[in-house]
Amino acid sequence: MEKKLETADQKLFDRKLRGLLNRSIVEQLSGSPEQSLVSLTLGDSRYPRDYTFPTSDEGWTVTELSTDSQRMMRSSTMLAVDCEMVLCEDGTEALVKVCVVDRDLQVKINEYVNPYKTVADYRTEITGIDAESLEGVTRSLADIQKSMKKLLSDGTILVGHSLHNDLQVESFMDFFPYSLYWDMKFESQVPEAKMEKLYLHKIPNNVPKKEISRIIPGEVAIEIKSAKKAQGRYYTAYAVFNSAEEANQAFENIEGTEERDSSGLPQKLVTFQFGKGATASLYVRKMARDDLQCQVPSKKRVFQSEEKFSESKKLKTDQKPVKETTTANFNQVDDQLKEIERLKQELEQKDSQIVTQDKILAKREKKIDELKQELENLQKKLDKLKRKKEKKGSLIN
């Protein structure tokens, strides 16, 4: 028994030590434009918070990273990763699909994953996946981990939207951060039509539409999703209002326990009675976070608790010089990209001018050839007239 414990402790220590060594190697890298972007990522104040994973826990894999830093600095290998998750009835989230493409947009992995759990919400409006999509799927998370491991080499740069959430959900091997990654952040406007809605989910199948209308205050239309009663014990719907302001006000007026869903969006757990005294509950959720009403909320799982959120704020404040330096570096890269784009446009314009000039020259050459031909014809006519005149003169003599 003691020997087994000693072996387990030794494995845990090995994973921790390997992780620290790998990070040390990565942090020394700089070289190509791709690696410069990686350096910017490593210098971001959010990096320690978002990309520090519990790799000592069971289920995580730490791979050994080569110490050949020169080869890593020359690496321009990039893989874009996207994962889709569903909400299970036990309250956890499970991976159901993984897609990986390289920088040439060649698909390397595009597979469904069996969560091996009962699914409560497929989040079809986000994932595009329903119960039928997973019928007959036998691939497991472990299978996907093996496939990913084959794709990764020293210096591989991973690209993704909120990539840390995907890696966290899947316990997706600690070799990801050691392979280097660039986490792409996108912000865009939420369509006004979406802001005029509240999302209702985990509605028990025995609750009729008219009961939902009674729970939601104000002038509202209830849109039952087509997946109603097709997936387990619950269904989902939208409460549609005349404006975003009315939707927000209705959310404030609803009595219930306010919390955050797995994407960090505000929602309320509403308990009510219906029919002949039966008790039920459902969730009423906003379409965007309160602090980002004008932006699209991330569709990935947010894993930081309120405590971590406070710590991240403090970290950003404490590391203001780092943030300012990172912002300056981003601005410099952005300026360089703009200059490249400007030069590219100038080159295209000059190429277009050259093509136009070539066409003009070709037309002029053609005109010259036509004039030459006309001159030759006129010369022939003159020669013919001259001969006639000479012949006529000889006859008179």
UniProtKB/TrEMBL annotation:
Location in the cell: Nucleus
One GO CC term, this protein: nucleus
Ranges in coiled-coil conformation: 330-395
Principal cellular location given in the protein's record: nucleus
Domain called Exonuclease: residue spans: 77-234
Keywords: Coiled coil, Exonuclease, Hydrolase, Nuclease, Nucleus
An MF annotation (GO) of this entry: exonuclease activity
InterPro entries per UniProt: REXO1/3/4-like, Ribonucl_H, RNaseH-like_sf, RNaseH_sf
Family, per entry: Belongs to the REXO1/REXO3 family.
UniProt name for this protein: Exonuclease
